[in-house]
Every structure is written in structure tokens, then in C-alpha cells.
Write a structure and sequence with these properties.
Number of domains: 3
CATH class of the largest domain: Mainly Beta
CATH architecture of the largest domain: 5 Propeller
Strand content: 35-45%
Helix content: under 10%
Shape: globular
Distance between the termini: 48 Å
Number of strands: 27
CATH topology of the largest domain: Tachylectin-2, Chain A
């Protein structure tokens, strides 16, 4: 069990590794009261310069903490915005994932090794490099193994690609001596596509390792088979020779497929495994499908137990369908409850309304990190023609850029007049169909005039994007229609 002081130290490491000073208070986020109590009381303090909030500093629930005291903090040697993505611990050492910003300097990420023997004064004592062109995401897990093939401490790391020569997969390190890590197996995992063809090892976003009896396993979230078989289980009883033993996912769990939350986006984001009674139980955070429990007494043949559904309407916003976004979850100490955390990239819900033309009607939409919030525009309206951009992606590419900018796309364009208003509290109509499993369509509204236009416009080249509306399971607005955002 993790020590209380260690949890506080790990929290400090994660939050302050790239910035040692707080920025000026933002009146939109409430008063800064932690100057005297050393407790994170608002969003400004958890993210001092607002650069890692999803969708800007506004519209978020403030973080709270109880019975937690700051013990110590550390600034890693190459501290930068967003450079630490995850943290694991074992004994007196912590291991911090160096996320994709770490690729800027030398073309690769890795994991920082931090000595916590004196929790008030943590020290960076080493660095474990990822493969060139790869980085570590939200997959850092250290455990002790005692199997017929290996006795000692190991560190499991995920791998995602940030540049040329990058490899995915899972990597295992012998950290029995944390000051001298030894590579056991590098960049291993699933190398087959759905048709059985050999492909480069899959990219993984998170990992979790565990031992049951004399055998050991690691489970990883497959970035490239999401919604299908994106729960990959590998046996690591001999960590020098790991082997894939099972692939499963939503495809195998019909009972978990409905109801889905807003967006109908389904993928395995994170996992934990724990023995509850006589059952080794895996808990998968499966985004809009909720939190899924699997029986892994036989890890080669995982069996579906149950899943959760998000409360409808959403208890915070009142929206229907609810927001979803199951990101990470843990069991409580006794295994009676699941404590889940949801990751919302768009705190406001925007409804796109096509007012004329063959596609007239409501279409769900959202504001995201790469779009300018409608509420920040001078008149809180998005004015000008709406340009439809249609792009088809294979299923395996829909989530590959998580944590990075989406890939460049070559849109086809048509134009219709439209306008946007600031998001309202009125829940939008539910989508009539779900997102296509093989394609994604995006309608982008551009601004070319300071006045609101309602008449149909001729086809034009796309103008700079100001807001994005993702239309699910239907065609974007046609060139002969008009529309608006609310």
C-alpha cells in the first residue's frame, strides 16, 4: 500500500515538475487562498499558466483536497510545459513519464528516476530513455516480481511514437537497483492486424503489471485497435521473453455497448487489476462505454463481468446524453466501490443546427482545444459561411494523436451560410445515429465577414477555422443549406 507521504510527494512532483512559481491569480477562477495554507484550491494553482486545461481555464470544476499536506516538490532537469504525463512508485523511488515534449530536445522521451528517501527533498537521480522516436505516455508501473524465472523489481513503460524510427509496444526494465536500470525486453506487443497480417508493433497509451500466484502479466491499451480489441494482455513470468496471450475489447462485450455517453467514442484508456475475493478483476476505463470489469483468473481468456453506465441526464450539467469520458478508475481499499475520473475536453456543449437544405436539422457538435471558443468572440456569435470538410480515417487512426496535435488533413470543401452563438445550457438533441466505425466527418465554420449571413453562399475555399462541429453518422451541411451553432 502506498504511504500517505508518498502520495503527497507524487502529487507535488506531477504538478510542479515544470514550473516552480505560480502565475497571477485569475478572477474567473476564484480567490487564491493557498498562499497561506499550501493547499491546491483552484484550477489556477493546479495548472499555473492555464496551458494544460482542456478548453481553456473556464468552465471546469475546481480541484479540491482534504487531509493532504504538501511535503516536498522537485523540478526535473529539463522541465517544460506538459512534460510529465504519469508517475509510478516502488520503495523509495518514483518514476515519472517524460511525455512527448521530451522529444523536442533529443527525439525521444523516457522516464525520470527520483529518490524519495527524504520526501521533503526529492532528488532526480537518473533517466531511463525510450527508443529513438518514441515517448512514454500514461503507462508507468513498477512492481516486485517473484516468479520461477525472475526475482526483483521491474518497471513497465508504454511507448508511443513522436518521430522517425519510433516504435510502440511495452518496455520492461529491471530496477532492482534503481540507479542502474537494465533493459529486459523492449518495444514488444501485438504485431498483427485484424486480418492477421504482420504490422509494426502497436502503440500503447497505458500499461499495468501484476503477479498472480507464480505467473506475471502486463495489460496495455492498444492505440490502434480501439473499440475492437484494444485490451492486450501479455505474460511476463519471464520478463526477458514476454508473450501476447490475449486480445479483447468492446467487440467481445455486447452488454457494454449501450447505452453510450455523448459522442459514442469508445476505447480502452486505462486499466488496473486487483484480486477481489477469489476473483482477479481487471477494471478498464472505456471512455463513453463506462467502466468495465473483467474476470482475469485466466488472463488468456478474460471474461466480461459488468460495466457502469453514466447517469442520464448528467448530474452536473443536466445534459442528455451525459458527457461520459471514462479516463481512469481505481477500486477503493475494500473493493466495494469504484472511484472513476472523467476527462472532458470540451466543458461546454455546442449544438449545430442546419436550418435549410437537404440536411436540415440538429447535429451534435463540440468546441475543442484547436478551435476558438465561441464565447470569446466579440458578439458571442460565429459569423460567416460554414464550410464542410470531409475526411476519412481508418479506425486505427482515430485516437493515435491523443496528447498531440491531430494529423494534417486535406479537406474537401463546400460552403453554406451559418452562424454560431455561445453555448447554452439547453441540452442538444441526441444524435440519431452513431459515429461511423470507419470514418470521421468534420464540419468547420470559417469567418469571412463581421456580419451575420443567412443567405446561401457559393462554394468558396475554406477560411481559417474558428470552431469545429463533429457530425456523427451523417453527411455535413451541403452547399445549398444554411446553419448555425448554439
Amino acid at each position: 500500500m502506498r504511504k500517505p507521504w508518498l502520495l503527497a510527494t507524487l502529487l507535488a512532483l506531477t504538478l510542479t515538475s515544470w514550473n516552480a512559481a505560480l502565475a497571477a491569480a485569475d478572477p474567473r477562477e476564484g480567490p487564491d487562498v493557498s498562499a497561506t495554507d499550501d493547499v491546491i484550491d483552484n484550477a489556477r494553482e493546479s495548472d499555473p499558466v492555464h496551458l494544460d486545461q482542456h478548453g481553456g481555464p473556464g468552465g471546469h470544476l475546481p480541484p479540491t483536497s482534504h487531509n493532504v499536506q504538501l511535503v516536498g516538490k522537485l523540478r526535473v532537469h529539463d522541465a517544460a510545459r506538459g512534460i510529465v504525463a504519469d508517475v509510478g512508485e516502488l520503495g523509495n523511488y518514483a518514476y515519472l513519464a517524460q511525455f512527448s515534449p521530451g522529444c523536442t530536445a533529443d527525439g525521444a522521451g523516457g522516464a525520470y528516476v527520483v529518490d524519495l528517501a527524504d520526501p521533503a527533498h526529492p532528488r532526480e537521480v537518473g533517466f531511463i530513455p525510450a527508443h529513438q522516436g518514441s515517448f512514454v505516455g500514461e503507462g508507468v508501473h513498477a512492481i516486485h516480481l517473484d516468479t520461477p524465472s525472475f526475482t526483483g523489481d521491474i518497471l513497465a513503460l508504454n511507448n508511443e511514437i513522436c518521430g522517425a524510427g519510433g516504435l510502440g509496444g511495452v518496455s520492461l526494465w529491471d530496477i532492482t537497483n534503481p540507479l542502474a536500470p537494465i533493459a529486459l525486453a523492449q518495444n514488444f506487443g501485438d504485431t498483427k492486424d485484424a486480418a492477421g497480417n504482420t504490422v509494426p508493433v502497436r502503440q500503447y497509451h497505458s500499461v499495468f503489471a501484476w503477479q498472480q500466484a507464480g505467473r506475471a502479466f502486463v495489460v496495455a491499451s492498444d492505440d490502434e485497435e480501439q473499440g475492437q480489441t484494444d485490451v492486450d494482455i501479455m505474460e511476463i513470468t519471464d520478463p526477458r521473453h514476454p508473450r501476447l496471450v490475449a486480445e479483447t475489447g468492446l467487440r467481445d462485450w455486447p452488454a457494454a455497448k449501450a447505452p453510450l455517453a455523448n459522442g459514442d467514442t469508445v476505447f480502452n484508456h486505462d486499466m488496473v487489476v486487483r484480486k477481489l475475493g477469489d476473483t482477479w478483476t481487471m477494471l478498464s476505463s472505456y471512455w463513453d462505454a463506462g467502466y468495465v470489469k473483467l474476470n482475469v483468473n485466466d488472463p488468456a481468456h478474460p471474461r466480461f463481468i459488468d460495466d457502469s453506465d453514466f447517469t442520464d441526464p448528467d448530474p452536473v450539467s443536466g445534459f442528455s446524453p451525459p458527457e461520459g469520458n471514462g479516463h481512469y478508475a481505481e477500486f477503493d481499499r475494500r473493493g466495494r466501490f469504484i472511484i472513476g475520473t472523467d476527462e472532458d475536453f470540451s466543458p461546454f456543449r455546442t449544438a449545430f443546427q442546419v436550418t435549410t437544405g437537404p440536411n436540415a436539422g440538429p447535429s451534435p457538435a463540440g468546441e475543442f482545444g484547436w478551435s476558438k471558443p465561441i464565447a470569446t468572440l466579440p458578439d458571442q456569435k460565429l459569423n460567416g459561411p460554414a464550410t464542410a470538410a470531409t475526411t476519412t480515417w481508418p479506425t486505427s487512426h482515430r485516437r493515435r494523436w491523443r496528447g498531440r496535435s491531430p494529423p494534417a488533413r486535406r479537406p474537401s470543401s463546400s460552403s453554406s451560410a451559418g452562424r454560431c452563438r455561445t453555448p447554452t445550457t439547453t441540452p442538444p438533441p441526441a444524435a440519431s445515429t452513431r459515429r461511423s466505425k470507419t470514418a470521421s466527418t468534420r464540419a468547420t465554420a470559417g469567418s469571412s465577414s463581421p456580419t451575420t449571413t443567412r443567405a446561401p453562399a457559393a462554394a468558396t475555399s475554406p477560411t481559417p477555422s474558428r470552431a469545429a462541429a463533429a457530425t456523427r453518422g451523417r453527411s455535413p451541411p451541403s452547399a445549398s443549406g444554411t446553419g448555425h451553432f448554439t
